[in-house]
Amino acid sequence: MSLKNAFTIIFGKLMVKTLHLLGRDAGNFPGLVLWTINKDCLKAFKVDCPIVAVTGTNGKTSVTNYLSHIFASGGKKIITNPEGNNLDTGICSLLLNHCDMRGRVHADYLVLETDESHVPVVYSKLNLQTLVLLNFFRDQLDRNGEVETLILKVKKFLETFEGNVVLNADDPNVARLGLANPNNKNIHYFSVDRYQGATDKPYEVGEGKFCPFCDTELVYDYYQYSHIGKFHCPKCGFGNIEPEVEIKNVDLTVPSFEADGETYKTAHNSIYYMYNMAAVYTAAKLYNFDKAILHDTFEHFEVNNGRLERFEVDGSSLLVNLAKNPVGANMTLRVMNEQAGSKELLFVLNDNLADGHDVSWIWDINFSVFNNVDRVVTSGTRAYDIAIRIKCSGYDPDKIFVYPDLDEATASLFSTKGDKFAIANYTAIQPTRAAIKRYKSLKENGEEK
Ligand SMILES: [Zn+2]
How does strand 187-192 pair with strand 130-133? Predict the structure, then answer.
């Protein structure tokens, strides 16, 4: 180990120890400091175990958590970032927390959620075995720039990568990357067969409607959601991929799906979630995990961090979902609309730094398809913006209630009984969960607010 690397690790470990002694959660900070003093700090770690990385616009926290659960259930010692500290500095902090004074990281596997734009920089320094790529949507334009720039960044990395690449065959933005390195024989496509809610025309806004190779408009047999579906290019033939794993017989009522002739029950019932499970299944298959572990994970495992998280409050059921972009929000709305009976929606919108100050993405959410939505409550630093957006979709403004304060919004939401849904963006999700838990505990302890 070079002197510089040895110093980097010792300095970092001392920093983490000092923060712990001060009773502080080290978080991202040590990684940030280390990155500032040594741009190659990731090279200072000695990681001998395989690394599985999960990336894509939506679903990477869930898929990382599911894969981690499967690896751990299979008796593997894993290190992971379940809360999604997925930038280079976050991964650096994670390794610093788990290494010894010589920088050695002891685990059977690292399972790492990794931000799309950070894939090239992190894995030019750490040895990646498998990259799982879920989807590419427009997301936080302030930070990431156009989605095409992001795709090209990952493509450049894949041009020389020879490890496993798990790709969504139904997203043209992702499927195209299977051709980035013609010498890589380890490309594993997954797909989900047409489900009952698929449409012949696009239902929501999407990216990637043109062939990335010849600019011809792609032809879709059907759309599952957004631009995800069965597509091909009529000119050059891009698409029509024979997937290695095809999820079939998706049944959102049970809910369940079929893979390799076996039926798996699942904990959630959206097509978006089924795609996540398809990615999990395909990656798990590469590592030959026992089917019993997969059955148990798909049916019972819950991430519980605001990704399709269920709450039972005061006799009402509430499903909370994070949405950082129109596709995420549309997915929750789709789950809501596909459920029979009347329901109410809470939408919490913040515009803090991590959310991006530009909230114009809410205009790409498809609110015009509300089905039996009795009431909408809005909250967050941009509570009025989202209320106006929903009003402009034609929804009755008398049914929209604006409470910038989250506790007031939560109390208003639960002032009626019945099924509820909540959508919150990035910095809003944890405060929303906290407000729900506070309200639930107040109710259960009999203290009326
Ligand atoms: Zn083409």
Answer: unpaired
| Ligand 1 centroid to residue 215 C-alpha, Å | 6
Distance 144 CA to ligand 1 centre (A): 26
Domain 309-444 belongs to what topology? Protein-Tyrosine Phosphatase; Chain A (3.90.190)
CA of 234 to the centre of ligand 1 (A): 7
Cα distances (Å, whole numbers) of residue 23 to 16, 17, 19, 270:
11, 10, 6, 41
Annotated binding site for Zn(2+): 211, 214, 233, 236
pLDDT of residue 128: 97
CA distance 72 to 76: 5
How many Cα neighbours within 13 Å face the side chain of 61? Answer: 19
Distance CA 448, CA 440 (A): 11
Minimal CA–CA distance to 205: which of 362, 359, 324, 326?
A: 326
Do residues 233 and 239 make contact, with C-beta atoms less than 8 angstroms apart? Answer: yes
Amino acid at 30: P
HSE value, Cβ hemisphere, 13 Å, CA-based, for 139: 21
**pLDDT < 50: residue spans in the chain:** 449
CB 177 within 8 Å of CB 391: no
- Cβ burial of 166 (10 Å; 0-12, 13-18, 19+) is buried
Is residue 98 within 8 A of residue 112, CB to CB? The reply is: no
Compute the distance between CA of residue 309 and CA of residue 255 in angstroms, rounded to an integer.
Answer: 16
* pLDDT tens column, 357-391: 889 999 989 898 788 999 999 999 999 999 999 99
Q: How far apart are CA 170 and CA 48, in angstroms?
A: 34
- Tell me the CATH class for 44-92+100-300: alpha beta
> Contact at 8 Å (CB) between 8 and 34?
yes
pLDDT of res. 449: 44
Query: What is the Å distance from ligand 1's center to 218 Cα?
Result: 8
Residue set of the binding site = 211, 214, 233, 236
Looking at the DSSP bridge assignments, the partners of residue 321 are 423
Tell me whether the CATH fold assigned to 44-92+100-300 matches the one assigned to 309-444.
no
Answer yes or no: are the C-beta atoms of 410 and 435 closer than 8 Å.
yes
Q: Which residues of 29-42 are buried (b: 16+ CB within 10 A; e: fewer)?
A: ebbebbbeebeebb
- Check if 358 is active-site: yes
Say which of 40, 100, 358, 405 is annotated catalytic. 358
Confidence at residue 155, expressed as pLDDT on a 0 to 100 scale: 98
Domain ranges, ordered by start, for the chain: 44-92+100-300, 309-444
What's the CA gap between 244 and 127, in Å, rounded?
A: 25
